[in-house]
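Practice problem: predict the structure.
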Amino acid sequence: MLNVSNAVVRYGAITALHGVSFNVEAGEIVTLLGANGAGKTTTLRMLSGLHAPSEGSITFEGRNITATKAHQFTSLGISHVPEGRRIFPQMTVEENLEMGAFGRRGSFSEDMEKMYATFPILKDRRKQMGGNLSGGEQQMLAIARALMGQPRLLLLDEPSMGLAPMIVETIFRIIGEIRDSGTTVFLVEQNAAQALRLADRGYVMENGRIVFSDSAAKLLTDERVRAVYLGEAV
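Answer:
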């Protein structure tokens, strides 16, 4: 579905990604692990057109999208839930969801009801301003807004950040349900244990490079991953 080949991203004289290559197959949850500053968010911003690679290529469903502009990605079937949620705080929950369907033709009321079924709390809060929601509710709204674009690939950047453990469990359960409903997920997440228990495969990034990859099950038992990312003594 998605293939990134030898991608290089630079910020002026600073190289943030060094020849990064990875792939995501349809129907998978693939997670990208790494410490702060490793290049994970830059990778997602590259995949959503916010930072075009200066070298390398990106293909999605067989189409070269390397030079595609950010505003075109939703129409391609790719939606991005950024770190920090980035909902519209002065709009209601319902208006935020409508913005997620911006550019679609015809009625999207059925999809709106699907979002309310998936996130019942949003239905209860549908007339509230997004800025008045709790952190967990805002994360649910950000995911639901992205799904309103009917993506085939959903990019998630740190969905558990700053959330209470009980809410994190709910968010990860919903991510699994999203995959089960037919949407492929590429997940950047510092909660490595949760991410690997949910994902099919994983990549580990250090200093802007993919240093190793494997099935999620094998990464969970890998001594280096356990020591560095799971905080276990081995």
